[in-house]
Design a protein that fits this description.
The complex is a heterotrimer of chains A (169), B (503) and C (335). Chain A is built from six helices and two strands, in the order αββααααα. Chain A is an all-alpha fold. Chain A has two domains: 69 residues; 89 residues, no CATH class. In chain A, strand 1 and strand 2 form a beta hairpin. Chain B has 503 residues and is an all-alpha fold. Chain B has a two-stranded antiparallel sheet. In chain B, strand 1 and strand 2 form a beta hairpin. Chain B is globular, with a radius of gyration of 22 Å. The relative contact order of chain B is 0.18. By secondary structure, chain C is of the alpha/beta class. Chain C is built from 14 helices and eleven strands. In chain C, the strands form two sheets. Chain C has a six-stranded mixed sheet, with helices on both faces. A five-stranded mixed sheet of chain C has the order 7-6-8-5-9. In chain C, helix 6 packs across helix 13. Classes of the chains: A mainly alpha (169), B mainly alpha (503), C alpha/beta (335). Chains in contact: A-B, A-C, B-C. Chains A and B meet through helix 1, strand 2, helix 2, helix 3 and helix 4 of A and helix 8, helix 9, helix 18, helix 19 and helix 20 of B.
Chain lengths: 169, 503, 335
């Protein structure tokens, strides 16, 4: 896909999103409500119609060839870029999915294993020490110092003994 | 005047008492570290440490919490510069020039400028606070919804120069930010809005941090990965005493914008609704508009780091004023400070200044000391922060992702927001590749709720008469300045053109 | 035996897993329950408001007096007038480590926003910590307005341009405002602001004409001579305002209060409920809490807990349904 194609696709997509937002906003009142001022949907509705206009302008400029992107026939994403970006985005998706399943601490463990060993090709020594130290550091900082409980999902009961230890002081 | 000095001397000596002094140092250091974590800000530090303050006298307690607040304000710049992720909305503007400076290997320069500018901002504002607190409190009362909206217009006007050269795409970006800000509960009608797919997570709206961490954390990382194809060069940053002195000498190049930013920041900060974020954005916008070389902004101009940092520190001092005299929190952090004061039995209000002078002046005195303490601590830590940039990219990248995920989770504690953050990051990256500027969206999501609310409140009270914005003097002045700011770059361009054709 | 079975049934799946995995510990733990992990204290309002202050004060007192083996962590979930918090608690059914600090949107939000599908009468009642009061306030400079009659006359004379500030549509003061509109037959413009403090400031700055605020939100401005109360919506005159008549004295049958209570999710185990009831009883009786009540103008005479609080909630739910029906949900939301 060339940058030129990507630009028109994105502009059309943006226009469609704007229309979607307009429809969603129109579920609420978008006009003037007596004694209540503008209805609650008015602000997002008129702003999304502005988004639509802006996207239309981009589409128009694309046909006229005004924007540099519309004349750019290089690849939007080279194969290498897709790989590099895909690995990163994919690994975060993996991190989030495993967080839902087994809690963030175990998820971090596997995420680091994947990223450091298979992407970064670091030594086992570094990988393993990071795999152990990072979750511990996150735990100490968030659960203990900042008192922000992070999602633990089904691994929750594993932490009871740690809490016992932590709060027995 | 003499009375003020007398009170101030009392306040300063109170702040220098061993317990209080210790509280200041501890608070500043803690705040600095919490503020440096993306997603965490002074609000986390203050909320967590609030219960601890039951153990010490109220004055020491508020001094401690105020020091954290202050330290975190300094700390916000650190993640903005070293990681390129604004840790709090107040530090968004710091990214614009801080990040390019760090990428060019001048992180130390940017960090020093941020520290020094914060110090100047904090000091100027605390002096203003000392001298003009009561009259400004009266002035703040004059700010109703109409004035707030005009101020928002003014804030938007200062951003004119911030967008890219593609105007439709810039407008699109601003509008997306404003629409995203409308998600959640509508305060006027009490109805849920734009709750896509009836997902609960949208009920609390879209937190600014979700968009900012998505775009600047994840999006920026993807961008870096692409432009370097994974072969990220490790920055070589040397930090020595002579380098530090060299950096400190830079001050004269940004002292003017810094002072302007400080006064502006303090003033905007004292207005109950506004707070430090619009202040820092406006300071950045003004610094760029009135710079001799506006094109260098966004590419690594030290003044672009100094102006917003001075303003946000000045504003955080300023926002203590409505908190103390009116009992109105200007930010989530001051809301918790306020809660603390009430719990300790101190009632904020117009009488606090006269009935509890030792408390108020103890606080003011501690702000002077906290400012100085944070400057010293911050500069001492700069070599450590700069070290972050020397970590190999394949180690730094997963750590940044983890910081993003955890930082996206912490403010609202829902996984929903983390998924949204990832979505914004990827979409932001794809849009950015097509020359859509992303910064305007981030700015808009911060100011959107305030702009909408004040607009609708004004229209409600005027029953639809738009003239309310020009018939009220303060509001009219704001609008006038806004129009002037919009026209200024055009006039300058026009002048330049005519100048060129003439010669 | 049947008793045990009953309990097991009541405990939802996560708790069962928890009990099962904490190997052998479950049997003795049943007898003497105490929290095993940090307790989430959900606040159905934003940071800095009344509910938030209460939650943070309670957290502080628990920590200071070491009343709980695990810390209490206040979390704000203010979305949708508390709808977000209510849904969260509903989804936590059977959880023994989540509590909710309420205001009256606990009753009104499920009625006004029918879509959220929450029935708060299923929640586990723990204890009622305080009752807050409401007064009608105007600016001191409005010298023509000295009592309720002159107030009503002034509002009527203003036609449709009298501006009443409040903390948000569907909140307590908006209901009270709607009640007054109906009682006196006038129409006002209701302008919502974020938080009672901002409302108070807008009244002092004369951006609005009147407001129904809690004593804590206005008292400092009253003492400074900026604002004055006209009438109180209580059964008896509050000690802090001995000269201000109640609506009842003036022949207007209008009384309205706001409760501050602690509740658990539906299906909390009886042992946990018992433990929390005792915990908050200790707090309620503490010197610090009673002092806070006096300073904040809250009524903290009796601690109502457990089933008794459940009954109180039932009454309040019925009352609020009635109130909302009487004024019409649309009179509150405007849509």
């Amino acid at each position: 896909m060339t940058v030129r194609t990507a630009e028109i696709l994105m502009a059309v997509l943006c226009a469609l999103c704007s229309i979607g937002l307009m429809i969603k906003s129109a579920e609420l009142k978008i006009g003037w409500v007596p004694e209540r001022g503008p209805g609650s949907g008015a602000w997002p509705f008129w702003l999304s119609s502005g988004m639509l206009l802006a996207s239309m302008a981009t589409i128009y400029r694309w046909f006229r060839g005004v924007t540099p992107e519309s004349r750019n026939l290089q690849l939007y994403m080279t194969r290498e870029t897709v790989v590099v970006v895909g690995i990163s985005a994919g690994s975060i998706v993996f991190l989030l999915v495993t967080t839902h399943l087994v809690g963030i601490y175990i998820a971090l463990f596997f995420f680091l294993l994947f990223y450091l060993k298979f992407v970064g090709r670091h030594s086992w020594k570094l990988t393993v020490s990071m795999m152990v130290l990072v979750p511990i550091a996150v735990f100490c900082l968030f659960e203990w110092a900042l008192k922000i409980p992070l999602p633990k999902s089904i691994s929750e009961p594993l932490f009871y003994p740690i809490y016992d230890l932590m709060y027995s002081f | 005047m003499e009375e003020i000095l007398l009170h101030l001397a009392g306040g300063l000596s109170q702040a220098m008492e061993p317990l209080n002094f210790m509280m200041i140092i501890l608070g500043c250091a803690l705040g600095l570290l919490i503020g440096a974590m993306p997603g965490l800000g002074s609000v986390n530090g203050v909320a967590i440490l609030l219960p601890i303050t039951f153990l010490v006298p109220p004055t020491s307690a508020i001094i401690f919490l105020a020091a954290i607040y202050y330290g975190a304000m300094y700390g916000g710049a650190i993640s903005s510069i070293t990681l390129g992720i604004p840790g709090a909305s107040t530090a968004v503007a710091t990214v614009f020039d801080g990040r390019p400076l760090a990428q060019a290997g001048h992180a130390d320069k940017a960090l020093t400028a941020a520290a020094v500018a914060s110090f100047i901002g904090g000091t100027i504002s605390v002096i203003l606070f000392t001298l003009f607190a009561p009259p400004l409190a009266t002035f703040a009362l004059k700010f109703g919804p109409a004035e707030e909206f005009s101020l928002m217009l003014l804030a938007f006007a200062t951003f004119i120069g911030l967008g890219g050269d593609d105007i439709p795409k810039t407008i699109f970006s601003i509008l997306v930010g404003l629409v995203l800000a409308a998600v959640g509960l509508d305060i006027i009608s009490g109805q849920p809005r734009l709750v896509f797919g009836d997902i609960d997570g949208f009920l609390h709206g879209i937190n600014f941090l979700v968009l900012a961490i998505g775009i600047y954390g994840i999006g920026e990382m993807l961008w870096t990965l692409e432009s370097t194809q994974g072969e990220v060069v490790v920055h070589k940053v040397k930090m020595s005493l002579s380098q530090l002195i060299e950096n400190l000498k830079d001050v004269k190049s940004y002292i003017a914008t810094t002072s302007l930013g400080s006064v502006l920041g303090y003033f905007v900060g004292t207005l109950p609704a506004a707070g430090a974020t619009p202040a820092s954005l406006m300071a950045y916008g003004l610094a760029k508009t009135f710079s001799k070389d506006p094109d260098s902004f966004g590419k690594g101009n030290v003044a672009g780091v100094a102006a917003p940092e001075a303003a946000n520190n000045a504003a955080s001092t300023g926002s203590m004023l409505p908190m103390i005299t009116l009992g109105i929190p200007g930010s989530p952090t001051t809301a918790i400070l306020l809660g603390g004061m009430i719990i300790w039995g101190l009632r904020p209000g117009p009488l606090l200044f006269t009935e509890n002078p030792e408390f108020v002046w103890g606080l003011i005195g501690s702000l002077y000391i906290a400012n100085f303490a944070t400057l010293v601590i911050n500069i001492a830590f700069i070599p450590l922060f700069v070290k972050v940039l020397t970590i190999p990219f394949t180690i730094l990248a997963p750590i940044i992702y983890i910081l993003c995920v955890v930082g996206g989770y912490a403010p609202t504690q829902t996984m929903h927001d983390v998924w949204l953050m990832l979505l914004f990051g990827v979409v932001g990256y794809l849009l950015r590749k097509l020359n859509y500027p992303v910064a305007p969206a981030v700015l808009a999501i911060v100011l959107g709720p305030l702009a909408e609310r004040s607009l609708r409140q004004s229209l409600l009270s005027s029953q639809g008469e738009l003239s309310i914005f020009v018939t009220r003097p303060i509001s009219a002045v704001c609008i006038l300045i806004a129009v002037g700011l919009v026209c200024y770059p055009l006039v300058r361009k026009f002048k330049k053109k005519t100048g060129e054709t003439a010669s | 035996m049947s008793n045990v079975l009953h309990r097991v049934k009541k405990t939802a799946i996560p708790a069962v897993i928890a009990a099962a995995t904490s190997l052998g510990m479950s049997a003795p733990a049943m007898a003497e329950w105490s929290p095993k992990k940090p307790i989430e204290l959900i606040i159905m309002a934003g940071a800095g408001g009344g509910a938030d202050q209460i939650a943070r004060l309670l957290q502080g007192l628990i920590e200071k007096n070491k009343l709980s083996p695990r810390p209490v962590i206040p979390i704000n979930k203010a979305g949708g007038s508390g709808a977000e918090a209510l849904r969260y608690i509903q989804d936590k059914a059977g959880d023994d480590h989540t509590l909710l600090v309420t205001l009256n949107s606990f009753y009104t939000t499920p009625v006004i926003q029918e879509g959220i599908g929450v029935d708060v009468s299923n929640f586990t009642p723990i204890g009622r910590m305080a009752i807050d009061n409401f007064l009608l306030w105007v600016h001191q400079d409005m010298t023509d307005i000295t009592d309720l009659d002159s107030y009503v006359a002034a509002v009527k004379a203003a036609g449709n341009s009298w501006k009443v500030g409040g903390t948000g549509t569907g909140q307590e003061d908006s209901i009270l405002t709607a009640m007054m509109e109906k009682e006196f037959g006038y129409d006002v413009i209701y302008i919502p602001f974020p938080g009672g403090g901002t409302v108070a400031k807008n009244l002092v700055g004369k951006h609005i004409d009147s407001t129904v605020n809690n004593p804590a939100e206005q008292n400092e401005f009253f003492r400074a001579g900026n604002t004055k109360p006209l009438v109180q919506f209580t059964a008896e005159r509050l000690p802090a305002y001995p000269d201000v008549p109640t609506a009842k004295e003036l022949g207007v049958n209008m009384e309205y209060y706001m409760q501050r209570s602690i509740n658990g999710p539906p299906g909390m185990s009886a042992e946990a409920q018992e433990w929390y009831i005792n915990l908050f009883k200790t707090l309620f009786e503490s010197e610090e809490w009673q002092k806070f009540c006096v300073e904040d103008g809250l009524a903290c005479d009796t601690y109502v807990s457990g089933a008794e609080l459940g009954t109180y909630h039932q009454q309040q739910i019925a009352l609020h349904k009635e109130l909302i029906e009487a004024v019409g949900a649309s009179a509150i939301t405007g849509e």
